[in-house]
Amino acid sequence: MNIYVLLKKTFDTEEQINVSNAEIVDDGAEYIINPYDEYAIEEAIVQRDTHGGEVTVVTIGDGKSEKQLRTALAMGADQAVLINTEDDLEDGDQYTTVKILEKFFEDKDVDLILAGNVAIDEASGQVGPRLAETIGIPYVTTITSLAIEGDIVTIEKDVEGDVEIIETSLPLLVTCQQGLNEPRYPSLPGIMKAKKKPLAEMEIDDLNIEEEDVKAKTKVIEIFLLEEKAAGRVLEGELDGQVKELVSLLRNEQKII
Ligand SMILES: Cc1cc2nc3c(=O)[nH]c(=O)nc-3n(C[C@H](O)[C@H](O)[C@H](O)COP(=O)(O)OP(=O)(O)OC[C@H]3O[C@@H](n4cnc5c(N)ncnc54)[C@H](O)[C@@H]3O)c2cc1C
Q1: 257 falls within a domain
Q2: CA 126 to centroid of ligand 1, rounded, Å
Q3: What is the CATH number of the domain that holds 74?
Q4: Bond before 186 cis per omega within 30 degrees
Q5: pLDDT tens digits along 93-110
Q6: Whose Cα sits closest to atom 51 in ligand 1?
Q7: Vertex 47 angle, CA 126 and 132, to 5°
Q8: C-alpha pair distances (Å), 71 with each of 12, 38, 153, 180
Q9: Closest residue by CA, ligand 1 atom 39
Q10: pLDDT in tens, 209-224
């Protein structure tokens, strides 16, 4: 099976994030694999180990993206592709990303593409479904189970607490979320092996893409961090007293009644 994983590098939300001029400040930022993409990598490895074939991890990014690709290789992916846009494109949006991926997949024989459900930074959840629509294959989002028998694929997806069971066929794109599997940590031998695994780098020229073809259709006007909330106050004592105190606080302190 030819299995592809779409990987996005994202800011590490455990670290300090600074915003300036509607952009997250890149200097010194720590990057990680988008957490939902870890479920996609794990599932790709499990499916390859069950059915045979190869796992290729693809990212559109910059020189810093190699680290996340090497981590995916250390987890067990077979090869990686970095489509490096840093010298050619200043700006981009989900349209840009999908147009580039469409060209990448033009000459590929695909059985299964796995993406994350959503990127934790820009969080549109568009890239997977848009790519599937663009290249004309079926897709199922937010899956929690994937079983392939021949060309028949049985999928479970979470629908607000219920489980929906869907039968579909290959080739297919799915988007992954927690509950699907438990992503493995790269082992030490895995990390050593990953250094020698193929990591191809290409630019948009190699895909016969002109800057004009992938120009962003949207513009980010503003990004801002939410103000930190003050700690809540817990009222104590008899219930009657608490009610009186609450009403007094809402009227005199918060001035909302
Ligand atoms: C050339 C270029 C320049 C950009 N410049 C800017 C900029 O100036 N400002 C800005 O805010 N954003 C920029 N972006 C990022 C872009 O707006 C979105 O982050 C990106 O299209 C993905 O959208 P999303 O984060 O909503 O992902 P979602 O649709 O939420 O992601 C879902 C899944 O899609 C896949 N995916 C998403 N992005 C990629 C990727 N890059 N490569 C491989 N798989 C992916 C992953 O599997 C991910 O889990 C740029 C993108 C490109 C390609």
Answers
A1: no
A2: 9
A3: 3.40.50.620
A4: no
A5: 999 999 999 999 999 999
A6: 92
A7: 25
A8: 15, 10, 28, 20
A9: 8
A10: 999 999 999 998 888 8
